[in-house]
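Late entry, evening session. Most of the bench is empty. Finally got around to the prediction I had been postponing all week. Sequence below, unchanged from the version circulated by S.P.
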Amino acid sequence: MKRTSKAKLSSTEIAGLVEMVKDSTINVTDIAEELNRRIAEPPGLPSGPIRRTVGTISGMVYSMVRSITNLVGLGVEKSILKLNPTVDSGLTVGNKEVLRSVLNGVLGDYLVNKNNPLAIPMQFRYQGEAIELSSDHIRSVYPKTGGKILLIIHGLCMNDTQWTRKNHNHGEQLAKELGLTPIYLYYNGGLHISDNGKQLSALLEKLIISWPVPVEQLVLLTHSMGGLLARSALYYGEKARHQWTNSLSKILFLGTPHHGAPLERMGNYVDQFLDATPFTKPFSRLGKLRSPGITDLRFGNLVDEDWNTFDRFEKRIDERQHFPLPQNARCYAIAAAIGKKEDAIKTRVWGDGLVPINSALGIHPDPKRCLNFHQDNTRTYYETSHLDLLSSGAIYEQIREWVEE
């Protein structure tokens, strides 16, 4: 189906949206109830019979709202699934996938935990269609299957089709000019990076085993969070002794927050601020709806041990495990900055608008945490945004030169 065709919503997708609306209503009700209680019963003041009565009545009202919401939501979901309707979404196929990707990036763990049909299952794709990991299907997708694979990994809240920007696609152009076979990863960015890393390593192993011809070379082209996912997959792949790690020859990182992103650290400060007083604490629940994938970007978590022993919203220093770049593959990093080269403060602090230059280049205040990319394997482009990394002609030429080495 063309990306510009009108998209339909299936009955399961409609039911998934209804479930989200139902849960959102209940969450807002919980916040309103907690705020009402804190206002009616300020901490430190004695509780009297009138206040207790008001509290009991309001509690019953909020409980009734939740019960009715649950019943109505469940009834609507069952009716939809029984009638099995399809509805015109009013969106193009491409825009529908963009919205689904954003939804997964922000609430991906919630969607998985609820078995919501809007959750994105990790898969390899080409031209927006899933690739079955069998030799026959791979041959049908790529009639001229070669031994050089280019795996292209998108960032948070994005999808595989968004590598095409301003009528340019780094992966397709590389494939055309250098004889590589382009494969795109499609995944739920809202899950922990380490969870996605384990899934990707397992999928890559199946891909290598299913590939119709011997794999001569595996190149990873990554953008933003995709670079962290690649490093996590490599860690778990080497740990499991997966054979795909032996085929890996190069990894290219475009705007990858190797040492985290300031926006998520700012989000954590907001969490602490809202938790600081009884009257703002109810609102902190809204900020804490954001996914584990997003909170992993505070420092650039790669493995389970970076997050599984503490509350991911608590204030912490950077204590994640450090993993150097692989020895058996060449690694390249490109950073961008929205400011001009001479505008040092703006350039260093904001970088490409999402990722600071030092983070993208693996530079850390602690020398022991620096990734130590070879100097010839890094570049910084100015007056370039995070998304411009995907469409810049100059950046493409540099990528091509590195891949061709």
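Two things to note before I forget:
Confidence is low (pLDDT under 50) at residues 50-59, 68-81.
Residues 123-260+320-404 form a domain with the Rossmann fold fold (CATH 3.40.50.1820).
Will write this up properly tomorrow.
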